[in-house]
Design brief:
five-stranded mixed sheet; globular; 2 domains; binds zinc ion; alpha/beta
Amino acid sequence: MKKFVIGVDVGGTEVKFGLFADTLLEKWSIPTNTKNMGTEILPEIADSIEKVCRKRGIDATSIIGVGIGVPGPVTDSRHVQGCVNLGWGDKDVAGELAICLENSFSCESQRFLVRAANDANAAALGELWQGGGRQSKSLVMVTLGTGIGGGIVVDGKIFDGAWGSAGEIGHICCVDEADIISTCSCGNRGCLEQIASATGIAAYAKVCLEKKTMDSVLRELVRETGHLDAKDVLDAGKAGDLLADEIVEKAAFYLGRGIAAVCAVMNPERILIGGGVAGAGEYLRAKVEKYFRQQAFHTMKDTPIRLGELGNQAGITGAAYRILSEMLL
Ligand SMILES: [Zn+2]
C-alpha cells in the first residue's frame, strides 16, 4: 500500500501544507487563524489535512506521519516555547496536533506520528533533502527575511541546541560601532540582523541617504513615494546605483563576518542563503562569498556558499523529511 507523509509550515499569516510520497504530490495553504490566542490553528490544520486526504482517498493508516515547522524554539521535536506571532505560549505542538488529527480522522485508535521543528531548521532540512544541500550531511542555512534566521543540520539531523535556540544567527553581535544605527529587537546592540535583514538593509539605507550627498535613484524614490524597502535597495544596486551598491556591500560584509563565525564553530559542509532578501540572487551571494573568504578561518575559506533552491517550499519539504528521516534510521 502506498504511504504518505505530510509537511506543514506554520507562518504568521499562512499555513502551508505539502503531501509527499517520494516527491511532492500536492501543496496547498490556509490562512493562519490567530484569533483566541491561536487555539484554532492546530484543529484547522488537522481538518485541512483530513479534507485533502479524503479527496484523494487516503485513509489514516496510509499516513506515516505529519511534520510541522513552527516559528519558535522547539525542544524534543515536540514542545515549542512560545510563538509570539501565533499567540502561543509553551505548547506541546506535536502531542496536541496528534490528538486533533485523531479527532478529524475520527480514528481514536490511530496514533499519528507527529514531529515538530523550528521553521528555520525545517527549511534547512528541506534543502538538505531536495534542494541546495543535496549530497551533503551537514549544512547551515541562513534565512534573510524581516529578521535573520538560521537552521543547522548535522549528520542529516536538525541541531536544536539545549533550549531549542540554536541557529539564532541574526543575533550574533558582529556589527562595528560606527555602523550601528539603533538597538536590536532583542535588546542588544550590533546584531547581524540590524544591518543585513530586509528591515536592517532598509533602515541602514535611510541613514545613508541622510548622511551622504551622492546622487541615487533611492533618493528620488523616497522623494516620490516616501517609502524605501530592501528590495528597492537590492534592485537599484544590481542596476548599478553606486549608493545602493555600497549599502548592499555593507550588508554582505557583515553577513560574511557572521557566517565566518558560524563556520568557526560548526564547520559545515555548505552554507545556504535563503529567504526573501536572497531573491537578489547571484548579485548578493557573490558579495557575501567575497567577504566570507576574507574573514573565515583559513581551513574553511572554501566552504561553498550557495543559494537555497526550494524557496518557500523548503519548510514543508523539511517538515516532511523530519518524519521520513526517522523512518530511515
Ligand atoms: Zn538582536
